[in-house]
Amino acid sequence: MDQFRIPCVIMRAGTSKGIFLKENDLPAPGPERDKVILGIFGSPDKRQIDGLAGADPLTSKLAVIGPGSVPGADVDYTFAQVSITDAKVDWNGNCGNISSGVAPFAIDESIVRCHEGLNEVTIWQTNTQKLMKSYVMVENGKAKVTGDAEIAGVPGTAAPIQMDMSGTAGAATGKLLPTGNPVDVIGTSRGPIEASIVDCANPVIFVRAESVGMKGTEDQQEIDGNPELLKYLEEIRGIACVKCGMAKDLEDATKNSPAFPMVAFITEAQDYYYPPEDKTIKKEDVDLVSRLMFMQVLHKTYAGTATVCTGVAAKIKGTLVNQVLHNDNPPELVRIGHPAGMIPCYSEVDENNNVKKAAIVRTARRLMEGYALLEKAKYQD
């Protein structure tokens, strides 16, 4: 046989889809591992036609899973965003949606012990060096799939998975507020604008929609079809990347840290329309509206880590997110309006900006299990 096999599972986790691999089934971290991963995904190729990924940033995600390697951790989880068009595997940051598939995968693969009923699984997120907790129902020895939890952007309902990311403050930069300020004024090619840079679960730079010439309720076509806007938003993201110490300049930010930090433009709660489902999201069902840029295009829904970061930012006095709510002491539940609907975050931050709670509810489902096949000749020295 001129091909070799690597065991893999494809999972829908939250509003993303990823390829889940076991640590021991891959080469050691480095160029050889990246080459194998690119082969599994079919990158670089805009259609990823010769691999397993789905030619979309939300379906070109990787989770590498192994036994817990630090005290208190049940399982290790390493995330990667695999580029579609470039031979690049980005190991910076984390994906909150993919995170929700980690505990179900680890339970189903017998990496962690479980019992019938609700299980708490502690996850060591190796990219950010932070602990997360996942709460999963188990039925007949496997992670429960069916249930009544509904999340915007995923058809139907499924068993709820609660993710507690309160331990992820300063995930990438070591600080909840990387610059030390709830609001900074940054210089851009279009002049100075206000921005809040917050790092919880993943770093996000928040700007007001009007400061980038937008309403904040635009759909995917309006944003992705506007090359000048995309260029400007990437400039803002790059500036934040440099200010966070994650890149040395704007070119380095785009080349070597294309996924993180993310940039979100926010506005007050209002009605808006979601064309794919011919529905209107009502003002009274959300507390604020946000549009999130991920891998230089609009996120079709909202990243799990950005949800956590937005919910936490809402509780930090003075941030732009806090200002948009017009409430100095917002409730624990913050409802974020994204293109496809609403995503809730349960967050609590004390007066010293210590994160006490940062929880979201997701669902996940194993879609395929088997082997990825790779041509031996391409991986021989």
TrEMBL record:
- Give the superkingdom in one word: Bacteria
The UniProt record lists the keyword Secreted: no
Q: Which family does it belong to?
A: Belongs to the PrpF family.
* Molecular function in Gene Ontology: isomerase activity
Q: Which species expresses this protein natively?
A: Pseudoflavonifractor capillosus ATCC 29799
Keyword list (alphabetical) reads:
Isomerase
Checking Pfam families in the record gives: PrpF (PF04303)
Q: What is this protein called?
A: 3-methylitaconate isomerase
